Amino acid sequence: MTAKILVSACLVGRPVRYDGMAKTLDHPALTRWRDEGRLVVVCPELAGGFSVPRPPAEIAEGLSGSDVLAGTARVVDVTGADVTALYLDGARSALVLAQSQGCRFALLIDGSPSCGSAFIYDGAFAGRKHAGAGVTAALLRTGGIEVFTPSEINALEARLESGEAG
Question: How far, in Å, CA of 152 to CA of 107, rounded?
Answer without folding.
Answer: 9
